């Protein structure tokens, strides 16, 4: 490993510990030449997941992009960021365990909505309005009515 300070190709590991809920290893390293200390992270390299969009274009699955969308939907709502990260992590885990390399964007959107409806109803409606591209207010009202019916059934 190259030292970021002096670019010497010799470092030693001072400390290792699990990070990101045991999905990576955090290592403190020290340069053998200049004694500069720095942190590295080691992760399993997964084969890429490819999301097939509605227009049939393809792009690599991005957990960061999914998290940004959830954060936007939950803006000014009392939803902890850690909970949103758990949603993203569970979706990615489910997608990877499916064995499919290509996933429809609609499938990802539905997975988000299934989880978001139980977290925050306003965030769910915000996400649904962008994801489903409501054309007029009647479709939007129908979605709200379905949400209300679901809530009534749970009580």
Describe the 3D structure.
The protein has 155 residues and is α+β, with helices and mostly antiparallel strands. Helices cover 45% and strands 21% of the residues. The protein is built from five helices and six strands; from the N terminus they run βββββααβααα. Strands 1-2-3 form a three-stranded antiparallel sheet, with no helix packed on it. The radius of gyration is 21 Å and the shape is elongated. The N and C termini lie far apart (57 Å).
Give unreliable regions as ranges.
none
Class from helix and strand fractions: alpha+beta
Strand order of the largest sheet: 1-2-3
How many E-type strands?
Answer: 6
Count of alpha and pi helical runs: 5
Largest beta sheet, briefly? 3 strands, antiparallel
Distance between the termini: 57 Å
